[in-house]
Amino acid sequence: MSRKPRVVVAMSGGVDSAVAAALLKEQGYEVVGISLKLLPREAGSGSERANRCCSAEDAEDARGVAAQLGIPYYVLNYEAQFHREVVQEFTASYLAGLTPNPCVRCNELLKFGSLLKQAMGFGAELLATGHYARVEREDVSGRYLLRCGIDDERDQSYFLYSLTQTQLARICFPVGQMTKNQVRERAAGYGLRIAAKADSQDLCFVGRDYRTFLREQCGDRLKPGPITDRTGRILGQHRGVALYTVGQRNGLGIGGGPFYVVRLDPGRNEVVVGKRDDLLQVEFLAEQLNLVAWDRLNHERPVLVKVRSRQAAQPATILPLDGGRIRIRWQQAQPAAAPGQAAVFYDMSEPDLLVGGATVAAAHETQ
Questions:
Q1: DSSP assignment, residue 203?
Q2: For residue 367, is pLDDT > 50?
Q3: CA 131, CA 150: separation in Å to the nearest integer?
Q4: Residue 172 is a catalytic residue
Q5: Rounded to the nearest 10 degrees, what angle do helices 210-218 and 88-95 cross at?
Q6: Cα–Cα dist 51/201, whole Å
Q7: Contact 362, 339 (CB under 8 A)
Q8: What is the domain extent for residue 243?
Q9: Catalytic site residue 218?
Q10: Does 312 share its domain with 330?
Q11: Is 299 or 207 the better-scoring residue by pLDDT?
Protein backbone atom coordinates (compact mmCIF):
# COMPACT_ATOMS: atom_id res chain seq x y z
CA MET A 1 0.00 0.00 0.00
CA SER A 2 1.37 3.43 -0.98
CA ARG A 3 1.97 5.84 1.86
CA LYS A 4 -0.39 8.82 2.16
CA PRO A 5 1.12 12.24 1.43
CA ARG A 6 2.69 14.69 3.84
CA VAL A 7 0.38 17.16 5.58
CA VAL A 8 1.41 20.24 7.55
CA VAL A 9 -0.91 20.94 10.48
CA ALA A 10 -1.07 24.49 11.80
CA MET A 11 -1.02 23.83 15.54
CA SER A 12 -2.30 26.66 17.72
CA GLY A 13 -1.85 24.83 21.01
CA GLY A 14 -5.59 24.28 21.26
CA VAL A 15 -7.59 21.09 21.27
CA ASP A 16 -9.03 21.51 17.76
CA SER A 17 -5.72 21.59 15.87
CA ALA A 18 -4.34 18.88 18.15
CA VAL A 19 -7.18 16.53 17.24
CA ALA A 20 -6.79 17.48 13.57
CA ALA A 21 -3.16 16.32 13.73
CA ALA A 22 -4.08 13.13 15.58
CA LEU A 23 -6.84 12.25 13.12
CA LEU A 24 -4.58 12.73 10.12
CA LYS A 25 -1.83 10.62 11.65
CA GLU A 26 -4.37 7.91 12.45
CA GLN A 27 -5.47 7.99 8.80
CA GLY A 28 -1.92 7.29 7.68
CA TYR A 29 -0.72 10.72 6.61
CA GLU A 30 2.83 11.88 7.24
CA VAL A 31 2.07 14.74 9.62
CA VAL A 32 4.29 17.73 10.40
CA GLY A 33 3.19 20.18 13.08
CA ILE A 34 3.92 23.90 12.75
CA SER A 35 3.10 26.81 15.05
CA LEU A 36 3.34 30.45 14.04
CA LYS A 37 5.05 32.89 16.39
CA LEU A 38 2.93 35.98 15.86
CA LEU A 39 3.46 37.97 19.04
CA PRO A 40 6.47 39.07 21.07
CA ARG A 41 6.84 37.05 24.25
CA GLU A 42 6.29 40.21 26.32
CA ALA A 43 2.92 40.96 24.66
CA GLY A 44 0.63 40.83 27.70
CA SER A 45 1.04 38.84 30.85
CA GLY A 46 -0.96 37.00 33.47
CA SER A 47 -4.68 37.65 33.21
CA GLU A 48 -4.14 39.74 30.07
CA ARG A 49 -3.21 36.55 28.22
CA ALA A 50 -6.17 34.55 29.51
CA ASN A 51 -8.28 33.10 26.70
CA ARG A 52 -5.92 34.40 24.01
CA CYS A 53 -4.36 32.20 21.35
CA CYS A 54 -0.84 32.25 19.88
CA SER A 55 1.01 32.83 23.18
CA ALA A 56 4.33 31.24 24.12
CA GLU A 57 2.37 28.90 26.42
CA ASP A 58 0.25 27.79 23.45
CA ALA A 59 3.37 26.94 21.47
CA GLU A 60 4.59 24.80 24.37
CA ASP A 61 1.23 23.02 24.46
CA ALA A 62 1.49 22.38 20.72
CA ARG A 63 5.02 21.07 21.15
CA GLY A 64 3.79 18.72 23.87
CA VAL A 65 1.00 17.38 21.62
CA ALA A 66 3.46 16.81 18.79
CA ALA A 67 5.71 14.87 21.15
CA GLN A 68 2.76 12.75 22.30
CA LEU A 69 1.84 12.02 18.68
CA GLY A 70 5.43 11.41 17.63
CA ILE A 71 5.41 13.94 14.80
CA PRO A 72 8.01 16.56 13.82
CA TYR A 73 7.26 20.04 15.12
CA TYR A 74 8.55 23.48 14.18
CA VAL A 75 7.87 27.08 15.16
CA LEU A 76 8.04 29.73 12.42
CA ASN A 77 8.54 33.38 13.29
CA TYR A 78 5.87 35.47 11.55
CA GLU A 79 6.01 38.41 13.96
CA ALA A 80 7.04 41.02 11.38
CA GLN A 81 4.47 40.00 8.76
CA PHE A 82 1.71 39.70 11.35
CA HIS A 83 2.46 43.13 12.77
CA ARG A 84 2.61 44.70 9.32
CA GLU A 85 -0.34 43.05 7.62
CA VAL A 86 -2.71 42.43 10.52
CA VAL A 87 -1.94 44.60 13.56
CA GLN A 88 -1.05 47.80 11.71
CA GLU A 89 -3.96 47.39 9.32
CA PHE A 90 -6.29 46.83 12.28
CA THR A 91 -5.18 50.12 13.86
CA ALA A 92 -5.22 52.07 10.60
CA SER A 93 -8.71 50.80 9.78
CA TYR A 94 -10.17 51.98 13.09
CA LEU A 95 -8.51 55.39 12.64
CA ALA A 96 -10.22 55.57 9.24
CA GLY A 97 -13.63 54.93 10.80
CA LEU A 98 -13.80 51.27 9.77
CA THR A 99 -14.54 48.13 11.78
CA PRO A 100 -11.98 45.58 10.52
CA ASN A 101 -11.99 41.82 10.88
CA PRO A 102 -8.36 40.85 11.55
CA CYS A 103 -9.12 37.10 11.67
CA VAL A 104 -10.19 37.20 8.02
CA ARG A 105 -6.98 39.03 7.14
CA CYS A 106 -4.80 36.64 9.12
CA ASN A 107 -6.40 33.61 7.50
CA GLU A 108 -6.05 35.07 4.02
CA LEU A 109 -2.48 36.33 4.21
CA LEU A 110 -0.71 34.30 6.89
CA LYS A 111 -2.30 30.93 7.65
CA PHE A 112 -3.51 30.18 4.14
CA GLY A 113 -1.10 32.53 2.39
CA SER A 114 2.47 32.48 3.66
CA LEU A 115 2.14 29.31 5.74
CA LEU A 116 0.51 27.41 2.88
CA LYS A 117 3.45 28.33 0.62
CA GLN A 118 5.86 27.31 3.36
CA ALA A 119 4.06 23.98 3.72
CA MET A 120 4.40 23.31 0.01
CA GLY A 121 8.09 24.16 0.38
CA PHE A 122 8.29 21.40 2.99
CA GLY A 123 7.01 18.96 0.38
CA ALA A 124 3.51 18.80 1.84
CA GLU A 125 0.49 18.34 -0.36
CA LEU A 126 -1.99 19.71 2.15
CA LEU A 127 -2.26 22.24 4.97
CA ALA A 128 -4.66 21.32 7.76
CA THR A 129 -6.05 23.47 10.57
CA GLY A 130 -8.54 23.05 13.38
CA HIS A 131 -11.17 25.31 11.81
CA TYR A 132 -14.79 24.22 12.00
CA ALA A 133 -15.55 24.21 8.28
CA ARG A 134 -15.58 21.71 5.43
CA VAL A 135 -13.99 21.67 1.97
CA GLU A 136 -15.55 19.62 -0.81
CA ARG A 137 -14.87 19.25 -4.50
CA GLU A 138 -17.81 19.45 -6.89
CA ASP A 139 -17.74 16.48 -9.24
CA VAL A 140 -19.06 18.13 -12.40
CA SER A 141 -17.19 21.45 -12.36
CA GLY A 142 -14.20 20.42 -10.26
CA ARG A 143 -14.73 23.56 -8.21
CA TYR A 144 -13.82 23.52 -4.53
CA LEU A 145 -16.67 24.35 -2.19
CA LEU A 146 -16.57 25.66 1.35
CA ARG A 147 -19.29 24.54 3.73
CA CYS A 148 -20.10 25.37 7.32
CA GLY A 149 -18.85 23.11 10.08
CA ILE A 150 -21.61 20.80 11.27
CA ASP A 151 -21.44 22.32 14.77
CA ASP A 152 -23.52 25.47 14.29
CA GLU A 153 -22.16 27.04 17.47
CA ARG A 154 -18.55 26.60 16.31
CA ASP A 155 -18.82 27.21 12.57
CA GLN A 156 -15.92 29.37 11.32
CA SER A 157 -16.72 29.55 7.62
CA TYR A 158 -17.47 33.29 7.95
CA PHE A 159 -13.77 33.94 8.61
CA LEU A 160 -12.68 31.92 5.57
CA TYR A 161 -14.72 33.54 2.79
CA SER A 162 -11.68 35.19 1.17
CA LEU A 163 -9.95 31.89 0.31
CA THR A 164 -9.32 31.21 -3.35
CA GLN A 165 -9.75 28.03 -5.38
CA THR A 166 -5.97 27.59 -5.42
CA GLN A 167 -5.85 27.76 -1.63
CA LEU A 168 -8.90 25.55 -1.08
CA ALA A 169 -7.35 22.85 -3.28
CA ARG A 170 -4.55 22.48 -0.71
CA ILE A 171 -6.54 22.83 2.53
CA CYS A 172 -8.33 20.38 4.79
CA PHE A 173 -10.30 20.84 8.01
CA PRO A 174 -10.34 17.46 9.79
CA VAL A 175 -12.64 18.53 12.66
CA GLY A 176 -15.20 20.25 10.44
CA GLN A 177 -17.34 17.10 10.49
CA MET A 178 -17.35 17.00 14.30
CA THR A 179 -18.96 18.87 17.17
CA LYS A 180 -16.83 20.47 19.85
CA ASN A 181 -17.91 17.81 22.36
CA GLN A 182 -16.84 15.09 19.94
CA VAL A 183 -13.48 16.80 19.47
CA ARG A 184 -12.88 16.90 23.22
CA GLU A 185 -13.96 13.27 23.57
CA ARG A 186 -11.57 12.26 20.79
CA ALA A 187 -8.76 14.26 22.41
CA ALA A 188 -9.36 12.45 25.68
CA GLY A 189 -9.42 9.15 23.82
CA TYR A 190 -6.02 9.93 22.34
CA GLY A 191 -4.76 10.78 25.82
CA LEU A 192 -3.90 14.35 24.87
CA ARG A 193 -3.09 16.43 27.93
CA ILE A 194 -4.90 19.48 26.53
CA ALA A 195 -8.24 17.67 26.05
CA ALA A 196 -9.95 19.97 28.56
CA LYS A 197 -8.05 23.17 27.69
CA ALA A 198 -10.32 26.23 27.55
CA ASP A 199 -11.02 27.80 24.17
CA SER A 200 -9.42 31.11 23.23
CA GLN A 201 -11.99 33.89 23.11
CA ASP A 202 -10.27 37.14 22.20
CA LEU A 203 -8.15 38.52 19.39
CA CYS A 204 -4.67 37.20 20.02
CA PHE A 205 -2.98 40.61 19.96
CA VAL A 206 -5.73 42.63 21.65
CA GLY A 207 -7.20 40.75 24.59
CA ARG A 208 -10.50 41.62 26.17
CA ASP A 209 -10.62 45.35 25.39
CA TYR A 210 -9.69 46.50 21.90
CA ARG A 211 -10.19 50.15 22.85
CA THR A 212 -7.40 49.95 25.42
CA PHE A 213 -5.19 48.45 22.71
CA LEU A 214 -6.08 51.27 20.31
CA ARG A 215 -5.33 53.92 22.94
CA GLU A 216 -1.91 52.36 23.48
CA GLN A 217 -1.18 52.08 19.76
CA CYS A 218 -2.66 55.34 18.50
CA GLY A 219 -1.61 57.77 21.22
CA ASP A 220 -2.07 61.38 20.07
CA ARG A 221 -3.66 60.25 16.81
CA LEU A 222 -6.89 59.90 18.81
CA LYS A 223 -8.40 63.37 18.57
CA PRO A 224 -11.50 64.35 20.62
CA GLY A 225 -14.39 65.76 18.62
CA PRO A 226 -18.15 66.29 18.52
CA ILE A 227 -20.88 63.69 18.81
CA THR A 228 -23.73 65.01 16.67
CA ASP A 229 -27.21 63.94 15.67
CA ARG A 230 -28.10 63.54 12.02
CA THR A 231 -29.00 67.25 11.74
CA GLY A 232 -25.54 68.29 12.94
CA ARG A 233 -26.62 69.31 16.45
CA ILE A 234 -23.79 68.69 18.93
CA LEU A 235 -24.82 66.33 21.75
CA GLY A 236 -21.48 65.65 23.37
CA GLN A 237 -17.80 64.91 22.86
CA HIS A 238 -16.12 61.71 21.71
CA ARG A 239 -12.62 60.54 22.63
CA GLY A 240 -11.45 59.64 19.13
CA VAL A 241 -13.35 58.21 16.14
CA ALA A 242 -11.32 54.98 16.31
CA LEU A 243 -12.93 54.11 19.66
CA TYR A 244 -16.44 53.91 18.17
CA THR A 245 -18.20 51.64 15.73
CA VAL A 246 -21.48 51.72 13.82
CA GLY A 247 -24.26 50.18 15.90
CA GLN A 248 -22.59 51.02 19.24
CA ARG A 249 -24.97 52.04 22.03
CA ASN A 250 -22.97 51.87 25.26
CA GLY A 251 -20.23 54.25 26.32
CA LEU A 252 -21.42 57.31 24.37
CA GLY A 253 -21.76 59.49 27.46
CA ILE A 254 -24.71 61.54 26.19
CA GLY A 255 -28.19 61.94 27.63
CA GLY A 256 -31.63 61.83 26.05
CA GLY A 257 -31.13 58.43 24.46
CA PRO A 258 -30.86 55.67 23.90
CA PHE A 259 -28.65 56.67 20.99
CA TYR A 260 -26.75 54.46 18.55
CA VAL A 261 -23.76 55.29 16.39
CA VAL A 262 -25.14 55.48 12.84
CA ARG A 263 -22.10 56.90 11.04
CA LEU A 264 -18.45 57.78 11.59
CA ASP A 265 -16.90 60.72 9.75
CA PRO A 266 -13.11 60.65 10.29
CA GLY A 267 -12.63 63.52 7.82
CA ARG A 268 -14.70 65.84 10.04
CA ASN A 269 -13.73 63.93 13.19
CA GLU A 270 -17.41 63.41 14.02
CA VAL A 271 -19.40 60.57 15.54
CA VAL A 272 -23.00 60.73 14.28
CA VAL A 273 -25.73 59.16 16.39
CA GLY A 274 -29.43 58.49 16.03
CA LYS A 275 -32.31 56.47 17.37
CA ARG A 276 -32.75 52.74 16.83
CA ASP A 277 -34.82 53.22 13.66
CA ASP A 278 -32.10 55.47 12.23
CA LEU A 279 -29.74 52.51 12.35
CA LEU A 280 -31.86 50.38 10.03
CA GLN A 281 -30.86 50.02 6.39
CA VAL A 282 -32.36 48.30 3.39
CA GLU A 283 -29.19 48.09 1.33
CA PHE A 284 -25.45 48.73 1.41
CA LEU A 285 -22.40 48.46 -0.80
CA ALA A 286 -19.49 46.07 -0.47
CA GLU A 287 -16.18 45.78 -2.29
CA GLN A 288 -13.33 43.32 -2.90
CA LEU A 289 -15.75 40.55 -3.81
CA ASN A 290 -14.47 36.98 -3.59
CA LEU A 291 -16.64 34.16 -4.92
CA VAL A 292 -16.14 30.58 -3.77
CA ALA A 293 -19.14 28.49 -4.85
CA TRP A 294 -19.76 30.50 -8.05
CA ASP A 295 -17.27 31.43 -10.73
CA ARG A 296 -18.99 34.75 -11.52
CA LEU A 297 -21.86 37.04 -10.57
CA ASN A 298 -23.53 38.41 -13.70
CA HIS A 299 -26.95 39.45 -12.40
CA GLU A 300 -28.90 39.97 -9.21
CA ARG A 301 -29.20 36.76 -7.19
CA PRO A 302 -30.83 35.78 -3.89
CA VAL A 303 -28.58 34.70 -1.02
CA LEU A 304 -28.42 34.55 2.76
CA VAL A 305 -26.10 37.19 4.24
CA LYS A 306 -24.18 37.59 7.50
CA VAL A 307 -22.40 40.83 8.41
CA ARG A 308 -21.36 39.50 11.84
CA SER A 309 -20.01 36.03 12.56
CA ARG A 310 -22.62 35.18 15.23
CA GLN A 311 -25.55 36.69 13.33
CA ALA A 312 -28.19 34.42 11.81
CA ALA A 313 -27.92 34.72 8.03
CA GLN A 314 -30.70 36.89 6.59
CA PRO A 315 -32.34 36.80 3.12
CA ALA A 316 -31.02 39.38 0.68
CA THR A 317 -30.09 39.85 -2.95
CA ILE A 318 -26.65 40.73 -4.32
CA LEU A 319 -26.19 42.74 -7.50
CA PRO A 320 -22.85 43.15 -9.31
CA LEU A 321 -21.49 46.66 -9.87
CA ASP A 322 -18.30 47.91 -11.47
CA GLY A 323 -14.82 47.33 -10.06
CA GLY A 324 -15.52 44.25 -7.94
CA ARG A 325 -18.23 46.01 -5.94
CA ILE A 326 -21.70 44.71 -5.20
CA ARG A 327 -24.97 46.08 -3.85
CA ILE A 328 -26.63 44.04 -1.10
CA ARG A 329 -30.36 44.61 -0.54
CA TRP A 330 -32.00 43.06 2.51
CA GLN A 331 -35.39 41.41 2.16
CA GLN A 332 -36.27 43.20 5.41
CA ALA A 333 -34.42 46.22 6.82
CA GLN A 334 -31.56 45.28 9.15
CA PRO A 335 -29.29 47.16 11.60
CA ALA A 336 -26.60 48.93 9.60
CA ALA A 337 -23.48 47.00 8.65
CA ALA A 338 -20.31 48.74 9.84
CA PRO A 339 -17.93 49.66 7.00
CA GLY A 340 -14.93 47.34 7.13
CA GLN A 341 -16.86 44.33 8.34
CA ALA A 342 -17.13 41.17 6.26
CA ALA A 343 -20.42 40.53 4.46
CA VAL A 344 -20.53 36.79 3.79
CA PHE A 345 -23.08 35.09 1.52
CA TYR A 346 -24.57 31.62 1.75
CA ASP A 347 -26.67 29.72 -0.77
CA MET A 348 -30.40 30.22 -0.45
CA SER A 349 -31.24 26.56 -1.14
CA GLU A 350 -28.19 25.10 0.65
CA PRO A 351 -27.66 27.36 3.70
CA ASP A 352 -24.46 25.56 4.73
CA LEU A 353 -22.79 26.38 1.37
CA LEU A 354 -20.68 29.54 1.42
CA VAL A 355 -21.10 31.46 -1.83
CA GLY A 356 -18.52 34.17 -1.17
CA GLY A 357 -18.08 37.46 0.57
CA ALA A 358 -16.93 41.06 0.41
CA THR A 359 -15.94 43.98 2.63
CA VAL A 360 -18.69 46.40 3.68
CA ALA A 361 -17.99 49.73 1.99
CA ALA A 362 -20.76 52.30 2.34
CA ALA A 363 -24.19 52.13 3.98
CA HIS A 364 -27.36 53.70 2.60
CA GLU A 365 -30.23 55.34 4.41
CA THR A 366 -33.46 53.39 4.87
CA GLN A 367 -35.77 54.05 1.94
A1: B
A2: no
A3: 11
A4: no
A5: 90
A6: 5
A7: yes
A8: 223-274
A9: no
A10: yes
A11: 299
Instruction: Check whether residue 175 and residue 322 sit in a common domain.
Output: no
- What does the pLDDT read at residue 219? 86
Domain boundary among 274, 297, 314: 274
Q: Is the pLDDT reported for residue 33 higher than 90?
A: yes
Co-location of 258 and 320 in the same domain: no
Select from 209, 197, 203, 193 the least CA-distant residue to 54. 203
Active-site pick, 54, 103, 106, 172: 106
Q: Is residue 202 part of a domain?
A: no
The answer to pTM > 0.85 is yes
Q: Which of 53, 54, 172, 204 is catalytic?
A: 204
Same domain, 356 and 237: no
The pLDDT of residue 236 is: 95
* Amino acid identity for residue 262 in this structure: V
Residue 348, H or E segment: none
CATH of the domain at 356: 2.40.30.10
Of 255, 274, 293, the one marking the end of a domain is 274
Classified as helix, coil or strand, 270 is strand
Through-space distance between the first and last CA atoms of the chain, rounded to whole angstroms:
65
Q: Based on the domain organization, do 143 and 250 belong to the same domain?
A: no
Number of domains in the chain: 3
* Rounded mean pLDDT, 134-159: 96
Residue 365: pLDDT band (50, 70, 90) is very low
Q: What is the pLDDT of residue 363?
A: 55
- pLDDT tens for 44-71 read 433 344 445 666 788 899 999 999 999 9
Cis amide linkage into residue 258, ω under 30° from 0: yes
